[in-house]
């Protein structure tokens, strides 16, 4: 075997490359340089299997007790091969382990410090300081998310723009759906009563969870500048109406998740106003971050704006009307935690989405989890983190994050209207998704909130060049991927918009809706609920053809195998049939037709096929 650089072999215990699934099971991964090795054997055993030598009486490790597990090449990325093994024979909850790398003729041992040769007869090295260790699997350290999350399809609603209802006086409100230069920030009058009247629509679509952007008192349309955390904004309704909404949603099997803005509050929040009025004499002074106590708290710049370097207090970004909470202050922390408890206890909400979650301390989120899980052990805790978030997903803070690391490759492959990005070819997309699949433990991947768009991005239809057939392909991939997918309101009926027009009013007139796209999305959601293969984490790629711009992948469940074919091109193509299809009859889930596994499959422009093989 040619000499390997230590940097070409990547492993770290207690993370996505080595994690406990339950009290007796470990998942172990190893990354090696792409094409570097032909196989990997995992050596694993209890670290305390020492016995006295019959000859010397000195304790020696009983190497014959080591399990030898051939690792599976799980995924291939642009730079790495990723190897995977499941270790189940762990009676005492602890494991020492290492890796044997093979290149077809020779082998070497890869440990936590160095590479060493194997013994003449294939014995593992005697230097036991070079083995990795998983010291002990403790039940209380296991990652546990609510079981219902992986079966949920979310529907995200921006309340001001979804539906008006019960308003006797609409004077002063703009025409529903009208647009001009100020429409992004304008209040249109969508409210909770309007949402209650549309719950049957959401149910018929197949969504089983609603994620609301903020509902609490605030002067803005978006409500991320909270003034009162304990009251529904009067423009949306009342706490009583919200209680009715939750009950009506629950009757329909729909869960409700609220948006908590605990990184910052609004400029009009009474605590902040007290600080502005009384300065260091305010009882709330230390609830916030004041940079220089000797300077005015809110000075104005020469341009009449307090912005950037002129700010004398911490904010979200440089947004002067969003002062940042100091959650290290015990009273401020207790105030925010009481908000979280109030809506769980009084109204029975099913989830909290946590805004700007990565800018709030881990200590605060650990306490947050304890407090809300006592009230509802099945509540879903979702952080708004845009990048890899393993430090928050160790079982002591969040159940999931908004998985924008899913959004990015999906948009780069399916999108045709991209700025500052080159679109992905099928192989590049496959490599990017593989990188994502190994970025998290599998139980975490089952609970991630996977979205194509949101109130913070351009809408998927616009990203797809306003082509609903391409947008449908993106939904096919999203809804055959693991985790907890989210549909941004209106996406299912072809509502588009760039970043400045992504919060448009929901069009309710049939002539304003793309019913073909709606029926496709509704059918995909129904199939996802019916077939467990759609929700499985593992993907087996069968084809990524850059010339034809075609993807074929397989997903296995105990009772069935799903084959997904996606053709991202305006030119019709025939897809070559994978070898294991031959001689089989598959069911086309979109049409109900039986498909001959021996014949090439025709794919129309921007077409897809979902084929099922029942075991």
From TrEMBL:
Positions in coiled-coil regions: none
GO molecular function terms attached to this record: hydrolase activity, hydrolyzing O-glycosyl compounds
Pfam family, one: Malt_amylase_C
Keywords (A to Z) from UniProt: Glycosidase, Hydrolase
Gene3D superfamilies listed in its UniProt record: Glycosidases, Golgi alpha-mannosidase II, Immunoglobulins, Oligo-1,6-glucosidase, Domain 2
SMART domains: Aamy (SM00642)
Domain Glycosyl hydrolase family 13 catalytic: 156-528
Top-rank taxon, per record: Bacteria
GO biological process, one term: carbohydrate metabolic process
Record-linked InterPro entries: GH, GH13_cat_dom, Glyco_hydro_13_lg-like_dom, Glyco_hydro_b, Ig-like_fold, Ig_E-set, Malt_amylase-like_C, O16G_dom_2
Family affiliation: Belongs to the glycosyl hydrolase 13 family.
PANTHER family per UniProt: ALPHA-AMYLASE FAMILY MEMBER (PTHR10357), MALTODEXTRIN GLUCOSIDASE (PTHR10357:SF210)
Protein name per UniProt: Alpha-glycosidase
Organism: Paenibacillus spiritus
């Amino acid at each position: 075997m040619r000499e390997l650089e230590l940097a070409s072999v990547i492993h770290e215990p207690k993370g996505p490359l080595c994690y406990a699934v339950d009290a007796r099971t470990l998942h172990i991964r190893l990354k090696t340089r792409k094409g570097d090795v032909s196989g990997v054997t995992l050596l694993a055993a209890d670290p305390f299997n020492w016995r006295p030598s019959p000859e010397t009486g000195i304790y020696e490790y009983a190497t014959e007790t080591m399990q030898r597990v051939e690792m599976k090449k799980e995924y291939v990325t642009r730079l790495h091969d990723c190897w995977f093994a499941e270790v189940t024979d762990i009676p005492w909850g602890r494991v020492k382990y290492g890796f044997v790398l093979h290149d077809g003729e020779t082998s070497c041992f890869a440990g936590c410090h160095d590479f060493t040769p194997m013994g003449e007869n294939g014995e593992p090295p005697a230097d036991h300081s070079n083995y990795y260790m998983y010291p002990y699997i403790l039940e209380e350290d296991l990652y546990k998310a609510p079981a219902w999350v992986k079966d949920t399809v979310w529907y995200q609603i921006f309340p001001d723009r979804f539906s008006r209802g019960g308003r006797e006086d609409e004077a002063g409100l703009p025409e529903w759906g009208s647009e001009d230069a100020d429409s992004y920030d304008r209040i249109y009058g969508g409210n909770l009563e309007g949402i209650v009247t549309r719950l049957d629509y959401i149910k018929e679509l197949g969504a089983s969870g609603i994620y609301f952007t903020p509902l609490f008192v605030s002067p803005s349309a978006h409500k991320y500048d909270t003034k009162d955390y304990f009251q529904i904004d009067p423009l949306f309704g009342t706490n009583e109406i919200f209680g009715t909404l939750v009950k009506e949603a629950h009757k329909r099997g729909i869960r409700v998740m609220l948006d908590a803005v605990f990184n910052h509050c609004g400029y009009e929040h009474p605590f902040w106003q007290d600080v502005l009025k009384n300065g260091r004499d305010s009882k709330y002074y230390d609830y916030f971050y004041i940079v220089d106590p000797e300077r005015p708290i809110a000075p104005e710049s020469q341009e009449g704006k307090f912005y950037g370097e002129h700010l004398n207090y911490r904010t979200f970004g440089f947004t002067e009307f969003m002062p940042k909470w100091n959650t290290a202050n015990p009273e401020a922390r207790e105030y925010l935690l009481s908000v979280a408890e109030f809506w769980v206890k009084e109204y029975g909400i099913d989830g909290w989405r946590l805004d700007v979650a990565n800018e709030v301390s881990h200590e605060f989120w650990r306490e947050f989890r304890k407090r809300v899980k006592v009230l509802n052990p099945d509540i879903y805790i979702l952080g708004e983190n845009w990048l890899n978030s393993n430090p928050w997903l160790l079982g002591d803070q969040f159940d999931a994050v908004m998985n924008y690391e899913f959004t990015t490759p999906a948009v780069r492959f399916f999108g045709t209207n991209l700025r500052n990005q080159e679109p992905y070819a099928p192989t590049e997309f496959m490599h990017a998704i593989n990188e994502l699949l190994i970025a998290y433990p599998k139980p975490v991947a089952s609970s991630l909130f996977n979205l194509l768009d949101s109130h913070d991005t351009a809408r998927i239809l616009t990203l797809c060049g306003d082509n609903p057939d391409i947008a449908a392909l993106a939904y096919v991939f999203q809804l055959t991927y693991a985790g907890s997918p989210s549909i941004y309101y209106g996406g299912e009926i072809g509502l588009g918009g760039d970043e400045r027009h992504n919060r448009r009013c929901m069009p309710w007139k049939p002539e304003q809706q793309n019913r073909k796209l709606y029926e496709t999305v509704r059918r995909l959601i129904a199939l996802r609920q019916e077939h467990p293969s759609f929700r499985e984490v593992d993907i087996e790629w069968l084809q990524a053809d850059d010339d034809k711009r075609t993807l074929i992948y397989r997903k296995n469940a105990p009772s069935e195998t799903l084959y997904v074919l996606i053709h991202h091109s305006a030119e019709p193509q025939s897809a070559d049939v994978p070898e294991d299809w031959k001689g089989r009859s598959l069911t086309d889930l979109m049409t109900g037709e039986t498909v001959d596994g021996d014949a090439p499959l025709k794919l129309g422009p921007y077409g897809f096929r979902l084929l099922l093989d029942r075991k």
